[in-house]
Specification:
Strand order of the largest sheet: 2-1-3-4-5
Structural class: alpha/beta
CATH class: Alpha Beta
Largest sheet: 5 strands, parallel
Number of domains: 1
Number of strands: 5
CATH superfamily: Response regulator
Strand content: 15-25%
Oligomer: single chain
Radius of gyration: 14 Å
CATH architecture: 3-Layer(aba) Sandwich
Order of helices and strands: EHEHEHEHEH
Number of helices: 5
CATH topology: Rossmann fold
Helix content: 25-40%
């Protein structure tokens, strides 16, 4: 029998309402992931590099990354992550309000694992987040 464990997910999103909706959608999973959240790209890099307040942080299995944030946006975070040998293998799903072609192209060029536009409808939003969790929790093999 395959043992099932909860994913460790880092949500990088400056929007409190979106972050809460993501957490609530994930709570409804058969095996809810452990969710950590930071509000901008600078905090994300500190978390992932275990610096400052995040010295004891656990390496996440998956990162849900918004693109448009203060201080350091998701595009810059993605480039930093995928350029860092210690962090490059962590799957990054860009989860953002944008559906602009340049954002999609630049995310994949930056080696995002997937690009998902946040649905405006709450039910569709929860469904999208749950599908991401199901794929990475139940189907994909993670490093």
């Amino acid at each position: 029998m395959v043992s099932v464990r909860a994913l460790d997910v880092l949500v990088v999103d400056d929007d409190d309402a979106d972050a809460l909706m993501i957490e609530e959608a994930l709570e409804g999973s058969a095996v809810p992931p452990v969710v950590h959240r930071v509000a901008d790209g600078s905090q994300a890099l500190e978390y992932l590099r275990r610096e400052g307040d995040y010295a004891g942080a656990k390496r996440p299995d998956l990162i849900l990354l918004d693109l448009n944030m203060p201080r350091m946006g998701g595009r810059e975070v993605l480039l930093e992550l995928k350029g860092d040998a210690e962090l490059t293998a962590i799957p990054v799903v860009v989860l953002t309000t944008s559906n602009a072609v340049p954002d999609i192209v630049s995310s994949y060029a930056g080696h995002a694992s997937a690009f998902v536009t946040k649905p405006l409808d709450l039910v569709d939003f929860e469904s999208a987040v749950q599908k991401i969790n199901k794929f990475y929790g139940d189907i994909a093999t993670l490093p």
